[in-house]
Amino acid sequence: QSALTQPASVSGSPGQSITISCTGTSSDVGGYNYVSWYQQRPGKAPKLMIYDVSKRPSGVSNRFSGSKSGNTASLTMSGLQSEDEADYYCCSYAGSSTYVFGTGTTVTVL
Amino acid sequence: QVQLVESGGGVVQPGRSLRLSCAASGFTFSSYSMHWVRQAPGKGLEWVAVIWYDGSNTYSADSVKGRFTISRDNSKNTLYLQMNSLRVEDTAVYYCAREHLRYRDLDVWGQGTTVTVSS
User: Fold this and answer.
1) Whole-angstrom distance, CA of residue A26 vs CA of residue B95
2) What does pLDDT average to over chain B?
3) How far apart are the CA of A50 and the nearest CA of chain B, in angstroms?
4) Rounded to whole angstroms, what are the CA distances from B75 to B19, B30, B55?
5) Could you give phi then psi for residue B29, rounded to 5 degrees?
6) Interface test with B, best of A44, A53, A58, A97 (most B CBs within 10 A)
């Protein structure tokens, strides 16, 4: 149950696109199409942004998109806005009803 | 509206016990698997445990196995986390979260309750 690996920080200017990677193993990310992404603002609970690798819940901006290749999933934010500043966590199903989170990435809008 | 409200956090000495509760409202609690997720100060999210919708199965992270027990009372729409033999490293904000009915994601989260383990 090792945490998935994410970059500690990613930054971009308003309007730019950024991508956050999430690397696991064949026992989690690579083994299931059940990767989700969560946004967490300081002092707040996480918010679901992407589920099943690339699906967006109702109400989440289409500027957010997800993908996966092998053992690595990615979250892309296009048209970066100041409100996107937050911590982002990936999460993967790991079998037997268990889950594993990523190490987290702080997104900064320059 | 759909809501999860945690309670029961506090300051406790190492080796002692604490029970967290999560009150659910606005949805059919007995239809959903429920999770506990924690976040140590300044750290990332850590999955802790899950219980199936009917309580028939539970699974937990290796870091808490044998010390923490997840349970639920569907008649009271409440989720629990019994934490025994607490360690300093268990200090964290504990969130309860609902697993989506059809997808493997956590679609509803509570606001969290803080547990501090300190002598």
Assistant:
1) 28
2) 97
3) 9
4) 18, 8, 12
5) -55, -40
6) A97
- Kindly tell me if the per-residue pLDDT of B102 is higher than 90: no
CB B33 to CB A97 under 8 A? yes
Q: How many CB atoms lie within 10 A of CB A103?
A: 18
Two tokens at B75? 């008649």
Task: Give residue B98's pLDDT band: very low, low, confident or very high (50, 70, 90).
Answer: very high
Mean pLDDT of A62-82: 97
Spatial neighbors of B84 by CB under 8 A, at least 6 apart, are B17, B67, B68, B69
Nearest to A1 among B44, B50, B62 (CB): B62
The two structure tokens encoding residue B98: 């609902």
Q: Give residue A106's pLDDT.
A: 98
Handedness of CA B89, B94, B99, B100 (dihedral sign): negative
Structural tokens at position A101: 């989170």
Instruction: Give CA–CA dist B85/B29, Å, rounded.
Output: 29
In chain B, the residue whose alpha carbon lies closest to the alpha carbon of A100 is B47
CA A59 to chain centre: 17
